[in-house]
Amino acid sequence: MSLSLPHASASLAHLPDPPGPEKRPSLRHLLAFRRDPLGDFQRMSARWGDVVMFHLANRRAYLLTHPDLVRDVLVTHHRNFIKSLALQRARVLLGNGLLTSEGEFHLRQRRLAQPAFHKEKIAAMAAAMVRHADRTARSWRPGMELDVGREMTRMALDIAGDTLMGADVGGEAEEINRSLTDSLALFDRLHNPFAPLLDRLPVPGTLRMKRARRQLDATIYRAIDLRRRSGEDRDDLLGLLLAARDEEGDGGGMTDLQLRDELLTLFLAGHETTANALAWTWHLLAQNPGAEARLHDELHTVLAGRAPGAEDYPALPYTRAVLAESMRLYPPAWTIGREPLEDFEARGYRIRAGSIVLVSPWLVHRDARWWSEPLEFRPERWLSDAEASHPRYAYFPFGGGPRKCIGEGFAWMEGVLALATLAGRWRLRPVPGAAPTPQPRITLRAIGVRMRVEAV
């Protein structure tokens, strides 16, 4: 049974609350969640099923883990939901960009940005994606030891800077990555009841976040200013956004502040998610030599040693399947949060307005009801008709509905071409004693993926 249409709160007051670990806020459970949110989600879902109620600090929260419920929250009844508290707090960093804006303003900004992500525009950016991946590949040497998460982040930052703003951020990559890491620390305070006060006090964490925002603002505004003064008509995202006009609305374009918010949002989301997906992909390939061999066979057959291009993307189905399976096991967006505007019903339970509703790719992607041998890395799941064998929202690494990630096509192109470029020359082998660990922040970061380089 899927969710019913949202009803007025009074009509649902008779419904019971879902089961869960406690009926009131509990410091014990809050600490357990902060220590190990992935494990806590798994334990709650295993014990209480597809609809679980718990508390995050002083707020009710609900974990929904059936594909039908995911679909209804993200798609069918999306008008009953706004972004979660986490993304509302993200406005401190991201402003009113696509990830955080709501209502008519969000629709207008999405209309303005959408043309930049048409297939032909993404294909035009493929050369830049491959150029930076090739530069990374050329910097590696046999026997070299890499922090793969850091290496993929550096490459993805270069690609994002080039394709989004036409800017070479290579010299600033370390500083930008440090600024992004410091900025994302604000999410660690999400469930701290004193967070609003801490945001105003000159404590070390707050000072680091403010310094990080100044650094990121300087990078973004410098790119906008240089482009406006140059008058160049370039086909990167900044050029397309500068030229965009809201033909369905007021006919206007974006202010510098709106450009800043959209560019920073896409810069953060675009590089962080791709870097994490690729880092986990290298880890999984090293653990599965059969899949790794099949990947190299495809690259040898299709590319025969040359660099890939946008035209090769359709001819690399196994490379794409490797990336898809990696994002099934380690989805960059490990949880997606919403806040209901009205009470609604989920499987006979009352979900209250103003609460936190969470749907988790991490859980649904690993559920044995939808996936045979769910913890096994099997890229062949994504070949031929295998993709159609599971429910529609058993796999949703880019979300769904009207708020689905606008850059999904860009991410697939970048991930496949970057992987093909790097794996065409190198294999990566785990460093003995390395212990890769998923770090669930706003994305699922790959920590401790240390590997050695081997020539193909």
From TrEMBL:
The UniProt record lists the keyword Oxidoreductase: yes
Keyword Chaperone: no
GO MF term (any one): oxidoreductase activity, acting on paired donors, with incorporation or reduction of molecular oxygen
Keywords: Heme, Iron, Metal-binding, Monooxygenase, Oxidoreductase
Residues where heme binds: 405
Biased composition annotated in UniProt, kind: Low complexity: 1-15
Pfam family, one: p450
PROSITE patterns with a match to the protein in the record: CYTOCHROME_P450 (PS00086)
Cofactor (UniProt): heme
Region (Disordered), start-end ranges: 1-25
Similarity section: Belongs to the cytochrome P450 family.
Protein name: Cytochrome P450
Organism: uncultured Gemmatimonadota bacterium
